[in-house]
Amino acid sequence: MKLGNAKLEEKVVFFFLFLSTLMIVVPVVLVIAVIISRGSSVLNWEFLTAMPRSGMRAGGIFPAIVGTFYLVAGTLIFALPIGIFSAIYLSEYSKRNLLTRIIELAIVNLAGVPSVVYGLFGLGLFVVFLKFGASILAGSLTLAVMVLPVIITASREALQSVPKTFREVSYSLGATKWQTIRHAVLPHALPGILTGAILSLSRAAGETAPILFTVAAFYLPRLPKSVFDQAMALPYHLYVLSTQVPNVRLELQYGTALVLVGLIVGANLIAVVIRSYFRAKKQW
């Protein structure tokens, strides 16, 4: 009886776990399927490379694509070095005390702050106080602050996953602490660091609220010429098409959403490939 009850209990648990998985996967698949079915009809070379025309009711989304890439690149430049160095300090140099616990608590709390709050922060600090104005620089800095907690957390976990024996062997050979980190720890932690960085950047690419206050232009049928220029971006462009511009074909909205989703999914797939490649090379 006990064996039969255990098998029945296992089947019930498996059923509910499978049902929970379906409740997560099915809506995502349906959303992607709807976006592809309604947006694929407008996807062509002109849509991806042309400037918008007729108040964004015609033409393409090339400035929005370029602006999104500029923002993601700027976010990477500012956030990645700071995030990695912060993780190295917290993981390898800092001691467990009140200060480090406060820093860790602050990182966790910052990861849960709504993106619109980061937008207001960027507006007050970068746009108004530092007088960068609504620009690519202000938007990139705001997005960098937003993704820093994710990069720090992912990098720190990747560093801590490297066995301590690697460090001990390096120290026994006379290496300094930085030489040990540089040659014995970072190469093995690199897959986790890159994965966290790519996932955080894909989140930055899809955010609307932070760029709404700091960089996004409503309608700008030209490419930005410097980091102090405003720029169009795919998330905000999609919001504008959906809520602010009358008489826009529904296919244009879904086509823009399809391009944005494609970029984010592509970034996530790159992260999966990188993680799988380096994990296959691990010998521990």
Structural account:
The protein is mainly α and 284 residues long. The chain is 76% helix and 1% strand. The protein has one domain: Orthogonal Bundle (MetI-like fold). It is built from 11 helices and 2 strands, in the order ααββααααααααα. It has a two-stranded antiparallel ribbon. Helix 7 runs antiparallel to helix 8 and helix 8 runs antiparallel to helix 11. The protein is globular, with a radius of gyration of 23 Å. It starts with a helix and ends with a helix. The mean pLDDT is 89.
Secondary-structure map:
Layout: H1 2-39, H2 45-49, E1 52-53, E2 58-59, H3 62-93, H4 98-111, H5 115-129, H6 136-160, H7 164-172, H8 177-205, H9 209-214, H10 234-243, H11 250-281
Antiparallel strand pairs: 1-2
Number of helices: 11
Name of the top-level CATH class: Mainly Alpha
Residue windows where pLDDT falls under 50 for at least 5 positions = none
CATH topology: MetI-like fold
CATH H-tier superfamily: MetI-like
C-alpha Rg (nearest Å): 23 Å
Helix content: over 70%
Main beta-sheet strand count, sense and barrel state: 2 strands, antiparallel
Distance between the termini: 43 Å
- Principal-axes geometry comes out as globular
DSSP strand content:
under 5%
Structural domain tally: 1
At a glance:
By secondary structure, the chain is mainly α. It has eleven helices and two strands, in the order ααββααααααααα.
Name the descriptors.
284 residues, MetI-like fold, two-stranded antiparallel sheet, 1% strand
